Amino acid sequence: MSGGASLGLRSSGSYGSLPQQQQLGGCQSLSPAPSASPPLAARKPAKMSLGGAGGGAGGPRVFARICKLAGRRQRMLLLLLVAVAVAFCFLFSSLVSKDEDASHGVETMLVFSDHVRSFVNPVWTSSGRPVAQRDSLTTSGLNTESHSRQKQVQDLMRRFPPAVVMDHHPCENFSLSPPPIDRKRTGPRPCPVCYLPVEQALTLRPAEPSASPILQSLNYMSKGILISEESNGGSLFGGYPSLEERDKSYNIKESMEVHCGFIRGKIPGLNTGFDIDEADRSEMQQCQKTVVASAIFGNYDVLQQPENISDFSKDTVCFFMFLDEETETAIKNSTTIDHTKRIGLWRIVVVRNLPYSDARRNGKVPKLLLHRLFPNVRYSIWIDGKLKLVRDPYQVLERFLWRKNVSFAISIHYRRFDVFEEAEANKAGGKYDNASIDYQIEFYKREGLTHYSSAKLPITSDVPEGCVIIREHIPITNLFTCLWFNEVDRFTSRDQLSFSTVRDKIRSQVNWTADMFLDCERRDFVVQSYHRELLEQRQATLKSRPPLWPPVVRVQPRKMLPDDGAKEPWKASASKKMSGKRTRDKKLISRRTRTKVNGGKEATQL
C-alpha cells in the first residue's frame, strides 16, 4: 500500500496486525528499520486515509516522527485512539448512506415478498414501482400523471405491513371452546376465534392460486334468442337450461362450457338483465385480488357499515354494495351518497332491469356469480345485506381459507343438518310456496337425496347458513357456484335446499368439496340484524307498550316534632289523638249538614 492507504477497508489480517503496520510505515520497534522495497508511486489519498489532505508521503512522515518521539505505551494508546476514531467514522458514514438511500423511496425500509406485493397490485415489481413507472424512469422521465401515480404507490407502501417470519403458527395451540354462558341470550351466540394480525395474515397468503382438480378452463354460454322448452326450466336470465344440459354440466372435464346467468350477452351487466352502468362496470373491472360484496333489493334490509377494518384493507380491498332503484331512493332519504358513489366504505352500484320479480331471488345473482361480475378478483367475501362485517377481510381469509388450505368455506346451519328438516322448516315459516318446495325435494329424492347421517362424515352437515360465503375464484369453485345458481334459477330461491345436491354431485366426480365451519365462528366476524320489516315491527311494538319502569311515588316529607314534643313524647302522642278525634267530629257534622240540604238523602261524591 501507499502512504495514503485507507484504514476503512479491511485487508487480510486484523487492523492492528504487525505486517500491516509495517506496510503503513508505522513504528513497530524502538528503532525504525529501513525498507528494502522500492518506493511506490504516490496517488491521491482516500477520504478516510490518515494522510488526510496532506497528500503523498507527508502524512506517513509526520506519523512516523510522532511514533519516534513517543514511548511504547503512548504509541499503543495512540493506535487505539486512531482505531476507535476510524470505527466511529465508518459507522457514521454507513448510517448517512442508509438515510440517503431511504430518502428515494420508503420501499427500501420495508421487507416483504414479491408475491405479497403482487397480491395487492399485480403490476408491482420488487422495486416497489409499477412496471409502467419503472420504464418511464429509464426513458424521458415522469410526466404529471405518472408522477402522481408514483406518489400514490409510495403513500400506499408506507402503510404496507412488513413481512413477518414465523417458526410456528400462533394459533396452533388454540382450542375451540363453546360460546360463553349468557342468561340474557339463550339462542345461537358467537364463540371465541383465533385471528392473526393483518400483517401476519398477509404473509401467510399462498403465493400461487389453489389447484383446480381436473377442470382448468371454464367458459359461459351466451345465446341471442331463447325459447323455453319445458316448464319449471328456469328463467330468461338463466337461459332455460334443459335437463339434459343440466346433467351434462355435472360431467367434470378439463374444459367446460356451462349456463351461468347473463345468458343474453358476453359482458355481464351489459344488456343482459341485471344491468349495470358503464362507469360502475369499469370500476368493477379494475378491482384486483379481493372484494367484499353485499346487496339490498326491495328495501329489504338496513345498510350496515363494516367495522374494525385496517387502513391497509381500506386501501387494497374493494367494498361493493348492490342496490335496486327502490332501495337507492329509500337510502337517499336518510343518507347522502357522495360524488364517488360511496356511503362509508361501500361503493354503491345501482342495478337496473332486474331479472326476477322476487327481491330475494335477485340477491342470488351477486351472491353466487361474483366471479362473473369481478373477473379479476382472486378472493371474495359475500355477506348478506342484514349482516355487519366486524373483522378485517384479510383476517377472515387467513382463518377460513389459507390456514385450512381450502378454496371455499361456508358455515353450517346453527340448528338443522338435514335437507328434509330444512324444507319442513321453510314451509312452516312461509319462506316459499309449499308446493314448489315439495316439488324440489321430490325431484332430489328421485336423484338419490337421503337424510343426513354419520355415514357422510367428514361432511358435517347438508344445510348451510348461506348468508356468508368465503371463496377463492378458481375454475372448480366458479363451476360450483354456477351450478348452484342454476338450481336456484330452476327451483325455489331457498339456496339451502340445493346446496348439498350440487356439492355431492361435484364431489363424486373430483376430489373437491366445500369446507363448512361452525355457525358460532361465523357469528364472531359478522353481526346479524333484523330485516327492515321485522325491525320496524319490533320498534312499533316497543312504542305501543306501556313503560316498564314503576310509577313515581311521591313521598310526603315527614313532619318534625316541636322541641317540647321531642323532650316530652307523651304530650305529642296525646295531642295527636286529640287532633284525630276532632277531624272525625268535623266529618260527621259535615255529613249531617249535606243530608238535610238534599232532603234527607245523602249524596255521594265521587
Tell me the distance between the termini.
Answer: 125 Å
Largest sheet composition? 8 strands, mixed
Q: Which of globular, elongated, flat, extended, rod-shaped describes the shape?
A: elongated
Mean pLDDT across every amino acid position: 76
Beta strand % = 5-15%
Return the structural class. alpha/beta
Count of helical stretches: 23
- The total count of strands amounts to 12
Low-confidence stretches: 1-57, 96-113, 121-142, 559-572, 600-606
Radius of gyration, rounded? Answer: 41 Å
Spatial ordering of strands, largest sheet: 5-6-4-3-7-10-9-11
Percent of residues in helical segments? 40-55%
Biased composition (Basic residues): 578-595
InterPro entries: TOD1_MUCI70, TOD1_MUCI70_glycTrfase_dom
Organism: Paspalum notatum var. saurae
Keywords: Membrane, Transmembrane, Transmembrane helix
